[in-house]
Design goal:
By secondary structure, the chain is mainly α. Helices cover 55% and strands 3% of the residues. The chain has 15 helices and four strands. The radius of gyration is 21 Å and the shape is globular. Mean pLDDT is 82; it is low at 1-35 and 391-396.
């Protein structure tokens, strides 16, 4: 559990207005550490797994290809680039991000000075920085001597990233997951592997990416080789999330604005739950049109289930207009997304994208518009960690 004083690991760093690492009176409300019961969590897991299969049955598709494990995806021919599809997919993320950026710019002059580092950069952070640089060079090397090292370089790259980010957080706040909550961080690795295998499962329905360089792997070899890098996803996003809390300029102005407090939260939670169910059904029925819901529907389903059962969610702080947890989790997702795509670009094996209608304007292998999927994915990482790793008890 997070410490009861100082920097709160659950709500984020430096939550008080004075920016002195002391929690304010309502800090614990920002992201309450209760998810669903074990039974409720298992029920949500079953829904997440079964709904796409039910959608496949409705669409008259055979189930056998979706039940193969480990799930693998082959190159698929999708509709060519379309400006109409591009603009339709772009309009929601652009419309969502713009008000936040305007608010941050409007309040930039009132933001307190940047928080000075409270400690020197730790030796283990320096060692991780050197280690990451060395692995990066080997990952992108074309030397035959390093071919075997290159195959397994992605996991060490991300272990180095996680250590460096935790070192920066520790330097700026005196707190980090690695130094203060190593057990929680270790469980994030376990949960992360399961979470990303789930997204590989969802990709079987939409075929938006596939892997090159795994053709000669046996199923067990592929499962083992893939599970290790998959396990670094949540630790990377959550570590980045906590680091971003130490930069007030990234969130000043959105900590007390736009309260979202519907009069009948359980009713709206039920509506959202239906939308999440429909989304997971829809990606199997209309994969060419509804593929963006791969990144949104699971988040809606999880948080709606929490809301309906009167438990707090990652959106709980919006009741009083505090958008920091959601905003910073989204930013953590897109920052990690940039590094994922950059390191994938020169690595081998690697993934390649095939996205209907928007396959243009690439940054590395990713179509530029595809980076917007990392915004809800960052929030999803926070939501999943709450659901399955934090203390579970009813709210209210």
């Amino acid at each position: 559990m997070p410490p009861s004083s100082g920097c709160d690991a659950t709500t984020g760093m430096l939550a008080s207005d004075e920016m002195n690492c002391q929690p304010s009176s309502n800090t614990q409300e920002i992201v309450v550490d209760d998810g669903l019961s074990i039974r409720g969590g298992l029920q949500i897991l079953l829904l997440l797994l079964l709904l796409p299969l039910i959608g496949a049955v409705v669409a008259g598709l055979p189930l056998a290809p979706y039940l193969k494990f480990p799930p693998t995806t082959r190159p698929t021919v999708h509709p060519e680039f379309s400006w109409i599809a591009f603009l339709i997919v772009a309009i929601i993320p652009i419309g969502t991000i713009t008000p936040f950026l305007k608010q941050l710019l409007r309040e930039r002059l009132t933001c307190p000075a940047s928080i000075p580092s409270v400690r020197d950069f730790p030796w283990w952070g320096s060692a991780a920085l050197v280690f990451t640089g060395a692995i990066w060079c080997m990952a992108w090397s074309s030397l035959p001597l390093l071919s075997e090292v290159r195959r397994f370089s992605f996991t060490p790259l991300w272990l180095g990233y996680i250590a460096v980010v935790n070192a920066l957080t520790w330097q700026r706040s005196g707190y980090s997951l690695l130094s203060d909550r190593p057990r929680f961080l270790a469980w994030l690795f376990v949960l992360s592997a399961a979470v990303w295998w789930y997204f590989e499962y969802l990709n079987r329905f939409v075929n938006n990416w596939y892997y090159q360089g795994i053709e000669n792997y046996s199923p067990f070899e592929y499962f083992l080789t893939a599970t290790f890098p998959f396990s670094t996803v949540l630790p990377a996003v959550l570590s980045t999330y906590f680091l971003l809390w130490t930069y007030p300029r990234l969130w000043w102005g959105i900590h007390a604005t736009w309260p979202l407090n519907p009069a009948r939260p359980r009713l709206w939670g039920g509506v959202a739950f239906i939308f999440g169910v429909a989304g997971l059904l829809g990606i199997a029925i209309f994969p060419q049109q509804l593929y963006p819901l791969v990144w949104v529907a699971p988040l809606i389903l999880i948080t709606a289930a929490q809301a309906v059962t009167k438990r707090s969610t990652v959106f709980f702080s919006l009741v009083r207009g505090d958008w920091r947890p959601v905003w910073l989790a989204a930013m953590a997702g897109i920052i990690c997304g940039f590094f994922w795509e950059m390191w994938n670009w020169g690595s081998y094996p690697r993934w390649v994208y095939s996205v209907p209608g928007v396959q243009r304007f690439h940054l590395f292998e990713m179509p530029l518009l595809g980076y917007t999927g990392y915004l809800p994915f960052g929030v999803e990482c926070l939501a999943v960690s709450h659901l399955y790793l934090f203390r579970q008890e009813p709210h209210g």
